[in-house]
Structure formats: C-alpha cells, structure tokens
C-alpha cells in the first residue's frame, strides 16, 4: 500500500519541487497583502519596566477632584476646598540603582483636566481624554554622579484616564503611550531620548464618601490620597556628568587617530 501510494504521488505530481516552490510563493504573496491569516496575528506588546515611584509621606488627603459644567479637574492640594493645584509631600524612589536618588523627600504637583462625562449610577467608569502635567521636585538639591539638580521627574501628558467603580473608595489615574496617550518625561538626572513607550499609574485611595454620580450626570467631587509609579521601555539612561562626556569624546577621538595610523601603516 505504501509503495503504490508513493508511486501515485509521483505520478500525480511529476514535478513536485516546482509545485512546492509555487505554493510557497503564493503563501508569501498572501502574507504580504495581509490575506494570510497567520500573518495577521499581532505580536504581544513589549512589557514596560517601572523605573520610579512616589508614595505619600503623610496620611493626609492630598488630591482633589472637582466636577465642572463641561470640564472636570484632578489636582494635588492638601487644603480642602482649594481651587488651585499645589505641591504635596511625597517620597520619590528611582529604581535604577543610582546613588542618592532613593527615598528622596520631594514635592509632587499634578494638575489635569478632562471632559465632563456620564459615569452612570453603578459599575465601573472611565473619564477619558485627560491632559495636564506633573512634577516631582526634590525639597533639597540632590548631587549624584557629578550632577546636581532638583527636577527628579516631570511630565506633560494627553489622553490619560480616571478609572474607578461607583461605590468604591479606590481608583486610578493613568496613561500609556501603548494605549494612544502621549507622555513627555523630563528630569535633571535621566535621559529619555531612547525611550519608545511610557506610562504612569497613580493609585487613588481613601476616596471620601466613595465614588458617586452627582446627577448632572458626571462624577461627584471627592478628596483622596494619591501615589504611584512611572514606567517606560526601555528604561531611561542616567545622564553622564560633563566630565564623563569629555572623556567619551576624547576616547572616540583617540580611537579615530589610532585607526588612521593603522591605515597608514598598512598602506606603507
């Protein structure tokens, strides 16, 4: 049976190699035009790595949400009823092993605006389209690796969201470039020029009176405590001190001189 089957296959496809090559060309063509189903399966997104975090240094409520007629605001303030963002005390930790940037006493300021949206009377909600800025400034200048500065981490963002569940006392304010948001980080100590994707996730805890609709039908105002983490892919690089840059430039120059000398010797 096996022998006759093999003979049949040979008779059925007398030019088997040409047939297989033609089939492969067809598959490649379909893949190139997006018609080959297996080729349309998206690769999983790269995981982002947390490089910094903040935690409240007191138990005080430090963030306020105000519901406006058309625009809602989320901003830091230790004062209940305050209408302007102000800095609140936090502890900043950089998770890159850089000396003097662990557990730094700092001031965190956040100011974000988002369109007023219906949150419903129950269940989960997301207020989308938030834009604004934040800063984490050291209370005292920090020196590490020959660099002295106070801007531990700052950012400008668009496309963040406020997420929670009606009746609950915890939620989150977050943004991710993978999800379509824009985030621009800056720091006196970190270089973000090679970063491809970024995100931040700030936890809201101890929400006063729990999340609730206010009947207009947006989210009712509240006070809470905020803290969280900042991530990217790849993680940002440490900014070398000017002396280090000078040594690098000198080193590159010496490599070039050495290469030219070797070339001249080879020609001689």
UniProtKB/TrEMBL annotation:
Name of the molecule in the record: Ice-binding protein C-terminal domain-containing protein
Show the InterPro entries listed in the entry: Ice-binding_C (IPR013424)
Give the organism, scientific name: Polymorphobacter multimanifer
Q: Where is the Ice-binding protein C-terminal domain?
A: 239-262
Pfam families with a match to the protein in the record: PEP-CTERM
